[in-house]
Amino acid sequence: MPKGKKKEVSRNLPTMPVSSAMDLDDDPPDFLPEAPVFTKVATDDAAYKTWVCLYPVYFDSKKTVQQGRKVRADIAVPNPLAVDIAESVKTLGVSCVFEPRKTHPTDWKNPGRVRARLFTELKKPSMDDIPTRKELIKRVAELLPEIQKKNPQQFPPPHSPAISNGASKETKTPDAGATSSSSPSSSTSGPTPVGGGSGSSTSSKKKGRKGRK
């Protein structure tokens, strides 16, 4: 085969698209959190790759340590959001960026991540009273309850029964209806005329047999 034809075949080979492992465009979650006021939204990971990452699962009281929680259970909060974490970091005076499309592998239903500038270019703490990542996580956890009171959630948490199962506990009402329908029959039961009771029962049996035929 001539060399020109080989080159032509190689040019027509399809190329596989390059996809990002952390991109949620192909399979977006039920909601994407909005960035808090005066918070920068990160679009380039390379510019903040040395910054500390904070996920909502770190502060979730409904998660175990094996599932990703990094604070003590007594200072953890239910249903933490990345927007509240970003506001807590700003309250501490630490620079941060908000990444709404990033998720933790064990908590993908609660999107959002915060990157905090804990260290300078010289690898020194940007704030003297927060020298480590562990201290930053602890300080953020202590501020989250007040931030949550100030910013009430306008939607159910992603791991609530209303979203995950599509039903709530209030749907278990047929049992109550069944008990209420059976109560009148029990209240009307009592001494009845023998002839009336037997006649009604035999007539119902005959009707039932005719219906079957």
Automatic annotation (TrEMBL):
Domain of life assignment: Eukaryota
Molecular-function annotations in GO: 7S RNA binding
Single GO BP term: SRP-dependent cotranslational protein targeting to membrane, signal sequence recognition
Cross-referenced InterPro entries: Signal_recog_particle_SRP19 (IPR002778), SRP19-like_sf (IPR036521)
Ranges for region Disordered: 1-26, 149-213
Signal peptide: none
Compositionally biased residues, Low complexity: 180-192
Pfam families, A to Z: SRP19 (PF01922)
Cellular compartment(s): Cytoplasm
Keyword DNA-binding: no
UniProt KW keywords: Cytoplasm, Ribonucleoprotein, Signal recognition particle
GO CC entries: signal recognition particle, endoplasmic reticulum targeting
Record keyword Cytoplasm present: yes
PANTHER family in UniProt: SIGNAL RECOGNITION PARTICLE 19 KD PROTEIN, SIGNAL RECOGNITION PARTICLE 19 KDA PROTEIN
Protein name, entry field: 4418_t:CDS:1
Organism for this UniProt entry: Acaulospora morrowiae
Higher taxonomy: Eukaryota, Fungi, Fungi incertae sedis, Mucoromycota, Glomeromycotina
